[in-house]
Structures are given as C-alpha cells and as structure tokens.
Specification:
The chain is α+β, with helices and mostly antiparallel strands. It contains 20 helices and 22 strands. It has a five-stranded antiparallel beta sheet. Helix 3 runs parallel beside helix 11, helix 9 runs antiparallel to helix 11 and helix 17 packs antiparallel against helix 19. The radius of gyration is 39 Å and the shape is flat.
Amino acid sequence: MRSIYFANDKAEITVDTLSEKAKSWFTGISDSSYLSKIERSWRSYYGDYYSENTSHELSFGGESGEIVNLAVNHFRNLAEHIHGMVTGSRPALQCRAVNTDKKSLIQAKLGNGLLDYYMREMRLEEVLNDAVEYAIVLGSGYVKLEWNSTKGKIYDYIEPDPSSIVDQNEDGEPIDENGNIVESFPIYDGDIEFGLVSPYDIIFDSTKPYFAKNDWVVVRTSKNKFDLAHKYHELADEILEVSTVDKMQKGTNSNPYTKGNETEDIFIYEFFHKRTESMPNGRYLLYVNTEIILEDSVMPYRDLPVYRITPSNIIGTPYGYTNMFDLLPLQEMLNSMYSTAASNINAFGLQSVLCPREAGVEFEQVGNGMQFIKYNAMQGGGKPEPMQLTATSPEVYQMMTLLEKGMETLSGVNSVARGNPEQSLRSGNALALVQAQALQFVNKLENSYVRLIEDVGTGVINLLKDFASTPRVAAISGVNNATENKEFKSENITSINRVVVDRGNPLMNSSAGRTQVAENLLMMGLITTIDDYIMVLNTGNLNVATDAKFDNSVLIISENEGLIKGEPQQAIWSEKHSQHIMKHMEVLNDSELKKDPELSRLVLEHVQEHVNLLRTTDPILLSYIGEQPAPPAPTTDNAGQQNQHPSQLPQGAENSPMMEAPQTQPDGLPSLPEPAGVKEGIIPEMATKPEDL
C-alpha cells in the first residue's frame, strides 16, 4: 500500500509512476476502441478511405481491379459546416473587474485591449479555431498556455558568482573548474505562448467522472534536442542520446503525411499538478524520461494551464465525444454505394450490341457512326439492338439519398445549412426556421467553445498579472479601431478577476442586420453624426455608440469617489448634466453617507452647479450635447412661466434676472419658492369650494 502520494514523491519515482500511468491510459483507450474511433475519424476527415497515401486518386480493388473505389466525402463537408456555425461569429471578450470604481473600469478597458491584441496579433484566435476543429473531428481539443521567460527583449543580466570563476582562457574569458566559459545570465521580458494539444498528446486520471475534476495532467510536446541540450547543458550528453520522434514512431500507425521524414525533435513531457490539500504548492515537472528530469518546482500557475473543448462528454468518464463518430459507418456505406454504381458503369459503360447471325450485319458497320446499314429482316427481329448492362438498381440510388439524409440528421447540419434546400422549402420563414434548428443543434459545442474562450482569456490575464513585471508595449485598438502602442505591466490589470464572452449577434453578419441596428441606434440618439451611422452600417462596430457612454460613466464614478473623499468637483457646460445629477444624487441614497453633513453639502452644491449650467448655458450649445435648457428658478415675477422655453418668454426676458442663478440660503441650498404676493404682505385666499379653483 502506497504511503506517499505519487505526485509528492521523489522526482524519479513520480516520473516512473507517470510513465506507468501513460501506458495504462493508452491501453485503456485502445481496448475500448476509443483510440480506433479517433484514428478512423481523422482519416475520414482527410478522405483516406481506400489507401495509405491520401492521394485522393480514383483507385480500383478486387481480384482483377474490377471494383471502383469511389469516396464522396460528406463526412468532411458536414464537419466543416459545424465548424463554421460555431466559429462564424467572432466572440467579444469582456474583462470583469473586482469593483466598479474608476481605476477598475479603466483597467478592465485596458484588459479588453490586451485580449484583442493577443487574439489578433499573437494569433490566439487561430489556435482556438483549431481547437474547435479538433473537438469536432477527434472528440476533444486542448489549448495549453505557458509563460516563456526567454521571449521578448533582454532587460537585465544576472552576473555570475565570482566564486565559480577559477581561471581565464586564452581569450581572457572567465572559466569554471570544468573549463566552461562563465557568462552573465540574461533576463528577458517574457511573454505568453499558446499550444494546441490533441487527444494523442495528453494524459489525465481516467477514473474521474469528468475532465474538470482532474488534479493533474501530463502534456506531451516535441522540441529540438539541440536547443534543449544548450539550455540544460549539464544534461547535454544524455539529451543528445535520446531517440528522435521519427525513430520512436517508426513502424507505428502514425501520421501518413510525416512518414519517412527525419527530425531532430524529441518528445518532452510536462506534469502539472494543481494546488490541493495534500499538495498546497502544487507541482511542475519537465522531463524526457526517468533519467532526464529537466525541471522540478512548485506549480507556477494559478490552475492547470490546459483547457478543453468537447461537443459532449461520455457520461461517467473524462473523455469527449463527437457526433462525427456516429457518421463513420454511414460514410463507409455511402462510399460503398457510390463504388457499386461506379463499378457497374465502369465495367459496362461501353455499349455492346446484340445482332442475330442471319441479319447480315458486319461489326464494322456498327462500330463506325453515320452508317447506312442493311439487315435481313426475319421473324422475331434481325435488327441490331444495344445490350443494357449499365442499369443500376434504383435501390442503390435510394440508399444513397437515405444515407445522405441520415448523416445530415445525425450531425444536425440540414440541407438548408449546406446551401442545398429541399424543393418544399421555398419561403424565407421556413428556411430561417430550419437554419435556426441547425444552429440550435450545435449549441452544446458552442457553449463549450464559449467556456474555452473565457477560460483561456482569464488565463491570459492571470499570466500577465503574475509574470509581466517589466513594462511592455502592446498594439491595442483605440478610438475608431485605430491601433496605438500602449505600455503596461502587471500592476495595471490587477483589478481584473474574470473574462466573459459576449456571443456575437449573427444579425451583424449581414448588411440588412447592420442597417437595422444602425437605424435603432439613430432613433435612440446613440448615433449623432452621419459618419458614425456609416461606420456602423459598413463595419458593425458599435464602439462609436458605446465609447462616449463609457467615458461619461467613468467620469461620474470618478467624481463620486472624489465627493466621498471630501474633494469638491467642478461641472462644465459640455457634460451630460441630467445623467450627472441623477448619478450624483445616488451617493446620498446610502443612509450612512447621508449622515455626513459635509458630504451632503458637497453633493448638493455640485448638483446645483449642473442645474445652474442648464439654466444659464446658451440653449443652442445645450442642444448640441442633447440636453434641454432648464426653466428659470421660480420667483414672484415669472409665476406661470417656469416651464416655458426661453424662446417663448416675453422679449428681453431671456436676459432678465430670471436667467441668473437662484439665490441660495447660507447653507448653500437653493431658496424655496414663495407664493405670489407673500413679499408684499398679501396673503392669497385659500380655495374653499370647487368653483374657487
């Protein structure tokens, strides 16, 4: 009975245990035919049905080549349509901040730009799309994130330990006791690397009910052994003796595209163990085999840096499943039907002619066209007739149609999605309904795709937070998608805690949809210029309608934070006064903050500034920013005119004292209006019956 957890044991013992687990893992998926399904699906996807060379040539089988091997690859066509439906709309990644203060919102906006930079410039989007393809064809796909500390520019050096220098060589360079040159160790900026991992190259605990329950994972990749020998020079001799990938795969049922090719790459393995009760620091191992262990350290990442996508799970196991597995026998039978029809036509396609011996017709007469042929008529005929051997049974073609429809049904990709709708589907509503059903069928894979993007996006932000300690520059999309180089480091994104995905709206992929959205934004007042309208119409980019609102929200939050700190704020005429008034007053909705008289005074004075600006600013200027002028403060002279627009006031009234800011009481609050006649000592009579009203 093991008394020590294998992952917490000595490195050699842990690696030896992992090697045994790898053998058991591959034995298990081979015995269950899971590995066979993956291989068959891969070969079917690339049309490798009848030969090993994947030449896509028409081939012949049978004892004397009488059978035509004809493959019509509906399998790949359906898989590509599924891929297009899932990845067709580019996802919009949004960073979520811990708080809603100004700093957090600004960091979230920077995080959005960084994610867009890695998706676009660093080709992360291509890796994610390839992972979806792996999931559709092989049942699951994996994306691995890692921080490469040797990428980027050198920003510092670690000087060697003086005690390690024992002498100098003939060039005056310092050497150690073994004669090796002692050099300064460069420190690089470092950056994120993305890797795509197939089901062939990953090992995990197959006893877990689903993949997310795994505490550890082993990932196999390949690397040039000379690069490894240079980096780990103390193990250089052992590394250079390791067999390369092509020699290790020789004689196996490996990729036919790489057979016979030589490489200098060798397999390396990375073991990641998350932080658990028994492994509070986690563990990371980089090794080639039990004798060559390159690195052994604590887990450098917050969680397992390997993220999976799968169309569905095999219940009770951590293995992925794809509907394409169900299409394999149907595709093979469909190939057989096409081959049957093609073999018949190939064997008997050249017309044979039947003719009685007594007809007097020679074969030379029939062999050449445009001939006048005489024949001896006799009882029962005598005329030459064609011999029909090419007529294929109609059941063969019916079976073809049945198989094709069956594949569409099982995959969820109907004829409308493939661009070949049935004759009965003529109306636009019917076509849209059938298309929507196809999209709904792949919803499970799409959900997995969204989770993958969210997890990878969060992983990218966490890696930058943990390792990007030096200032670095990224090309980030700015105003109107113009690219600008922005410097940042880890402390600039510390407030981001999660990345979420907003699914793209398929409506924005069509010109009609963009037109409708642009019209709606125009009606809502979110688009104010013809240039913004044309940008939404042509590109579907909604930033022109949202950036200003975001900046305004950040300004209001910043002012509220300043007010709470006791800092007076200043209003200017160009601000959205109505929104500022509403949001500033929300500060006093907190019962504790409301008890602070100084805070109440600051808030109310600042709100009054906005009110005064609405009363005193030129109405034409206010109309440009979408604000309505406020009526003048009520006085005894303008009773009944408070709700009139300045243009409706008597001539000269707009310049009268009514347009001036109202008098305030000593405490800074505006004076309350008094009934007409009070100042003159005339108290108005109160209504006592309905006719007095």
